[in-house]
Amino acid sequence: MADTDAFEDWLNAYARAQDGGDVALLKSLFSADAKFFQTPFNKPIEGAGQISEAFAEIWARIVDTSFKIHRIADGWAHWTSGGKIEALEEPHRTSGIFKAELNANGQCEKLTFWTETLSVRESDMLSQRDA
Questions:
Q1: What's the pTM?
Q2: DSSP 29
Q3: How many domains in the chain?
Q4: Domain range holding 98?
Q5: Cα–Cα distance between 97 and 78 in angstroms, integer?
Q6: In a designed cystine with 59, which of 13, 21, 32, 63 is the match (CB 3.0 to 4.6 A)?
Q7: For 52-100, what is each residue's pLDDT tens digit?
């Protein structure tokens, strides 16, 4: 793992990429052979190019976005995002933590997400089920 300052720099750049939907910046944050686990139990997406494409696909579906992130420990961060799923005209909110493992160059080699997604449609379905 790189030092704490390197993680802080990486985290700030990651936030800028998320805020602006900057695929090129996001790609530069990952090593060529990086692994991204959307959940700890899924097969990883491998390689900086594939990882940035996966994020670009998500960004293309969500409009009017907001993104906030803060460091909770070295290599760990909590984030929240919101926006609207354009095709459904539905709000989309996510909250999660991630663990990022950086190499000596300050690039991420492994990123693992633990995420909770809650949209109005999902919550409506849950409240109807529980009623």
A1: 0.86
A2: T
A3: 1
A4: 4-130
A5: 4
A6: 21
A7: 999 999 999 899 999 999 999 999 999 999 999 888 788 889 999 999 9
Nearest to 109 by CA among 53, 54, 56, 46: 46
Distances (CA, A) of 17 to 2, 32, 86, 124: 20, 18, 20, 32
Which residue type, as a one-letter code, is found at position 61?
R
Report the alpha-carbon distance of residue 31 to residue 81 in Å, rounded: 25
CATH number (domain holding residue 59)? 3.10.450.50
| CA pair distance 26, 70, nearest whole angstrom | 17
Measure Cα distances from 68 to 9, 19, 20, 65, 79 in Å: 15, 9, 12, 10, 6
- Rounded to a whole number, what is the distance in angstroms from the first to the last CA of the chain? 48
User: How many whole angstroms from its chain centre is CA 122?
Assistant: 20
